[in-house]
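Supplementary Methods, section 5.1.

A reviewer requested that the exact input to the structure prediction be made available. We therefore reproduce it here, unchanged from the version used in the analyses.
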Amino acid sequence: MKLLKNQWKRGLALAVVAVLTVGLVAGCGTTPKPSQNKTINIGYVSWAEDIAVTNLWKVILEEKGYQVNITMLDVAPLFVGLNKGDMDLFMDSWLPITHKAYMEKYKDTLDDYGTWYEGAAKVGLVVPSYVNIKSVKDLKGKESEFNGEIISIDPGASIIETTDKLIETLGINYKVVASSEAAMLTALDKAYREKKSIVITGWSPHWMFAKYDLKYLEDPEKTYGEAEGIHTIANKEFTKNNADVAKMVKAFKMSDKQVGDLESLINEGMDPYDAAKKWSKDNKGIVDSWTK
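The structure derived from this sequence is encoded token-by-token as follows.
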């Protein structure tokens, strides 16, 4: 009886060891996921494509186990935040012209992940096609038709400074009205419905070119420069400490149609985060090509 009791104890001990061993082996063979309290801070400006892709990456990274905070800022404080490390990523830097000054100023602390938009990003003055002018030079003498105003986006955007220089160069009596993208588009919509003249600072990609019949004013002196690329910018320390995330974001590419489809969901009334979740689900193969 004593012998049987000792054998039973020995067998129980071996069983416990076996279970623990299996657990350790299984644990070693599991790919660790990012900690749920690992936070990524993405800054964005109130531009349609930036709102769309920032929310898209919030969805993607959250599904990978990260906590993602997104913060809307004007361009100048956003770059300050990137420089200090308060912001980790910015998905919508227009280079080599629009954000050139910021990149030069903070080049020692920033990484350029390259372009993600596969079209030609363009900036310039935009009017409805029914407005009877073709060039920025045609604005001269028509100040009253446009109320002496060029409607623009948020203060701090480089396009405002460029437009001020254009006004000075052409010697025209206009002022740039800085507002926000939403306010600018509201003004465009009202003028368009009433068939009134309006000139705004525009850029591509943007869904407004699908909704309205618009045209860029010719810019003979290339004041707004050539077509640009839309780049993702990161804080260098973030890149160093988050190689896996950096690799995914560097693989990010979208066509004009893909950006337009995502923007359209938002423009049609969906919350940007919900729109991003739907687009990500409907385009799983595309998302997987970036993240795997």
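The longest strand covers residues 89-95. These observations are discussed further in the main text.
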